[in-house]
Each structure stands twice: as C-alpha cells, then as structure tokens.
Amino acid sequence: MDEGVIAVSAMDAFEKLEKVGEGTYGKVYRAREKATGKIVALKKTRLHEDEEGVPSTTLREISILRMLARDPHVVRLGFYL
After folding, report:
1. CATH topology classification for 10-67
2. So where are the chain's domains?
3. Which of 6, 33, 65, 70 could bridge 77 with an S-S bond, Cβ 3.0-4.6 Å?
C-alpha cells in the first residue's frame, strides 16, 4: 500500500439508521450515505468462510436489479466493495 493512503471500508461511507429486515442471505438496513446525505437501502450479504467467491444467489439478485434498473418502483443498484 502507498504511504499516506488509508484503506477505508465501504461500510464507512454509510451511517446505519435502522434494520429493515433480515433473511437467509443477509440483513437490509435503512442507511444514510455520508457524502451526500441520501437515504439508501443497504444490504449486507452473509459470506460463509468455507465458500470461495460470491454466492450464486447474490449474483442472481444483482443481475435482476440491473435488468429492472429503469423501473420507478425498484431501488437503484449501487456498488460498494
């Protein structure tokens, strides 16, 4: 890592306001993006230590959200790694 560069978690970009729901694959929070003040839905996906890579269910969900991106009734998909 370069000198003077600080690694920051993507989760540090948000302030969790409340837990909205929880399911088999993770938790969903109502959150505020610190840089813009924008209210967002933030999903934190569970990753099992014994599995490599991103679970197929997560990839499927991302694919569906991308296909529905222009629908006004669907939350916009943003990426934070």
Report:
1. Phosphorylase Kinase; domain 1 (3.30.200)
2. 10-67
3. 65
Query: Around Cβ 75, how many Cβ atoms within 10 Å?
Result: 13
Report the alpha-carbon distance of residue 19 to residue 27 in Å, rounded.
Answer: 7
Render pLDDT for 40-77 as a digit per residue (tens, 0 to 9): 888 888 777 666 777 888 888 888 888 888 888 876 77
pTM: predicted TM-score of the whole model, two decimal places: 0.66
